Amino acid sequence: MEHPVQCNCQKNKERMCTMFSKIIATENIKFKDLEKEIFRWMNEVGCLILRYILEKQEEKIFEGRDEKKYVSRGFEGTSVHTIMGNVPYKRRRYTATEECVTKTVYLLDEILKISSVKKVSGNVVEIKFKENKVQNKKIELNLELKNSVDDFY
Q1: Rounded CA separation 127/83 (Å)
Q2: Read out DSSP for 56-109?
Q3: Cβ neighbours of residue 9 closer than 8 Å, sequence gap 6 or more
Q4: Whole-angstrom Cα distance, residue 142 to residue 24?
Q5: DSSP structural state of residue 2
Q6: CA distance linking residue 81 with residue 117, whole number of Å
Q7: Cβ distance 92 to 53 under 8 Å?
Q8: Which DSSP symbol is given to 133?
Q9: Residue whose C-alpha is closest to residue 72's, from 91, 92, 55, 56
Q10: How are beta strands 70-82 and 101-105 bridged, if at all?
Q11: 20 to 30 A from 7, CA-CA: which of 52, 54, 72, 139?
């Protein structure tokens, strides 16, 4: 199996060298900015690796599927929003016939349990839920504080 980032090895190497050159050329770079830039770039690399893995999984699923039950109808592009960013990938669309009913199936999404609703990873949903919970707690505390001040006067 080839290395995950080899699919665009030269392009990625050039981007990395460009990024490093820009950072080194910047005279008064602050650590905070350096940290943010590296974090952004690592998220991009993470998205590339995730895409590669998803597409390799798709190949394995295609080769190991029940060919009589799942008929490939070609590729379809889609994406999933992750904690690293948006990850575009190609997946196969299959038709499956059971009891005279034919339906469209995406085996990759089913096997990996990728949500078909808005294509958002469970990690993103969990983080948003926690952020909303914190935000609601802040609102509650502000209201309590306001009520306490109102009661005081």
Answers
A1: 9
A2: HHHHHHHHHS-TTTEEEEEEEEEEEEETTEEEEEEEEEEEEEETTEEEEE-HHH
A3: 3
A4: 45
A5: -
A6: 11
A7: no
A8: H
A9: 92
A10: unpaired
A11: 72
Q: How many residues in the chain?
A: 153
Q: What is the DSSP string of 22-53?
A: HHHH-TT--HHHHHHHHHHHHHHHHHHHHHHH
* Predicted pLDDT at 41: 87
Q: What is residue 120's DSSP assignment?
A: B
Q: What are the pLDDT digits (tens) for 132-141?
A: 555 555 555 5
Tokens, residue 113:
């349990």
